[in-house]
């Protein structure tokens, strides 16, 4: 039974029209977006989710947009247990996290798997903005990469990343650094075969240091938010940054991997930099 069916006798017809059909699930926590006209019904809606999905133990509603440097989404618990800590499983990788302290989106799972499927033997990979380490750990489990380094500034996210690395027995392949990519990437003096930049909206400001850390012919994955008419702008920004670094860029792919708002997409530009 879906949520609308479960609530068809409890909500007014106009309230049912406002109700979304789906919600995200992270571990045993459901996260739903409710419009303000349904706020006074939130407990009823939360309990309906608990009733139709026995795996769910907590229901939270989004209480604003994911924002700030650490991209944390404000959440309000509306039913179930009083916690935002859980363990999520993604393509066989276990991810322990607290949604009140770190960023995580289960919607990017397929995109992380897409990245892992592109990797060839023995690559060295840098994942900037690595959060609780979903990308480093998926790459470690599902790709033939030799080494993966994740860099994350939020010490809470880094704390969970270390737990997750241990949980997934990935200590040999994955190194996790806590700090600002601006400080840590140039000072490590390393050149990588592949660099992943999953900070849409801001990743572009870090292109100069990413390109500098990429070996000739290396692959870069730049995430951005753009309306469809502006996709070319993100490609042009990467082209310009490559040119300014005395390098050339080849566009390999541009994929749409989610939504930011009804008219703005989450995109990834896959490029090789020579
Ligand atoms: C959109 S989240 C993505 C996290 C992770 N890659 C994921 O998909 O779950 C971006 C992350 O970048 C981190 N971050 C933001 N600015 C940073 C910086 N200058 N250096 C390192 N990490 C940064 C934030 O704390 C946040 O965890």
Question: Can you walk through the features of this model?
Answer:
It is built from nine helices and 13 strands. With 274 residues, the protein is an alpha/beta fold. It folds into two domains: 3-83, Met-10+ protein-like domains (GMP Synthetase, Chain A, domain 3, 2-Layer Sandwich); 104-273, Vaccinia Virus protein VP39 (Rossmann fold, 3-Layer(aba) Sandwich), CATH 3.40.50.150. The strands form three sheets. It has a seven-stranded mixed sheet, sandwiched between helices. Strands 1-2-3-4 form a four-stranded mixed sheet. Helix 4 (109-118) crosses helix 5. The longest helix has 14 residues, at 231-244. Bound molecules: S-adenosylmethionine. The site of S-adenosylmethionine has 21 residues, from helix 5, strand 8 and helix 7.
């Amino acid at each position: 039974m879906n949520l609308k069916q479960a609530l068809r006798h409890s909500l007014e017809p106009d309230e049912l029209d406002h109700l979304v059909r789906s919600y995200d699930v992270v571990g045993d926590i459901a996260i739903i977006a409710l419009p303000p006209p349904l706020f006074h019904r939130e407990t009823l809606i939360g309990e309906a989710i608990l009733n139709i999905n026995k795996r769910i133990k907590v229901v939270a509603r989004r209480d604003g947009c994911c924002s700030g440097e650490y991209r944390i989404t404000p959440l309000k618990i509306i039913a179930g247990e009083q916690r935002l800590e859980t363990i999520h499983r993604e393509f066989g990788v276990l991810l322990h996290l607290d949604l009140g302290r770190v960023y995580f989106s289960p919607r990017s799972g397929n995109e992380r798997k897409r990245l892992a499927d592109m990797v060839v033997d023995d690559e060295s990979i840098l994942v900037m903005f690595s959060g609780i380490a979903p990308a480093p750990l998926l790459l470690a489990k599902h790709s033939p990469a030799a080494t993966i380094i994740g860099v994350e500034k939020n010490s809470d996210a880094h704390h969970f990343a270390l737990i997750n690395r241990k949980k997934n027995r990935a200590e040999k392949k994955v190194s996790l650094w806590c700090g600002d990519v601006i400080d840590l990437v140039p000072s490590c003096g390393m050149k990588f075969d592949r660099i992943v930049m999953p900070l849409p909206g801001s990743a572009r400001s870090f292109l100069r240091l990413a390109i500098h850390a990429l070996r000739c012919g290396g692959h870069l994955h730049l995430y951005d938010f753009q309306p469809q008419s502006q996709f070319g702008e993100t490609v042009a920004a990467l082209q310009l940054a490559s040119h300014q670094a005395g390098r050339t860029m080849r566009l390999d792919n541009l994929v749409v991997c989610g939504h930011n708002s009804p008219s703005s997409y989450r995109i990834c530009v896959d490029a090789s930099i020579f």
